[in-house]
From TrEMBL:
UniProt xrefs under Gene3D superfamilies: 1.20.120.1630
The species this protein was found in: Xanthomonas perforans
Membrane association type: Multi-pass membrane protein
tRNA processing keyword on record: no
Protein name: Protein-S-isoprenylcysteine methyltransferase
Record-level GO cellular component terms: endomembrane system
Transmembrane segments: 6-21, 41-60, 72-97
GO biological-process terms attached to the record: methylation
Places the protein is found: Endomembrane system
Signal peptide (from-to): none
One annotated GO molecular function: methyltransferase activity
Amino acid sequence: MSASSLFIALNLVWGGYELLLSRRRRAGDGGAHDQGTLKYLWRVLSAAVAVAVMLAYSGLAHWPLGWAGPLQWAGCALIGSGLALRVWAIQVLARWFTVDVTIQPDHQLVRRGPYRWLRHPSYTGALLAFYGLALGMGNALSVMAIVVPVTWVFLYRIRIEEAALQRAFPVAYPAYAKQSRRLLPLVW
């Protein structure tokens, strides 16, 4: 299988998974703590990917000769590992996972699986996948069109989510935050 074929297949699987999540995992309270971040997230992600695709087909800033194949393979590795981490994180959260920022009546603070090390492993996985998408497009401008706004919108959403968790778990969440990182193990 070529890097291009794998790249397309991984993106189709990832896109299908995200569409299923968006339809099945809505909060019962309408995302009372979400503050509109879900809509904002989807708008930024859609715009970033649309711009990146246009740039990829523009003929501008393509990777130097010989770089496209290896970078597309690297992109596939990032998409695959990011999707695997995201699926694992969502499976560990189980019924407490929603696409909206919400706190359910019987909500529990999960500290197992990837949550032992990261407070937002699902977002780490999504970011890895988006960075892989950017690399695989074969265009330096596409990388910037995805990496900057996508990273920014996830950091914004993390801020809202952490505030909701802090309110819901005023003692447990700060203790957990001291023992784990937001997105990158041992770093941040």
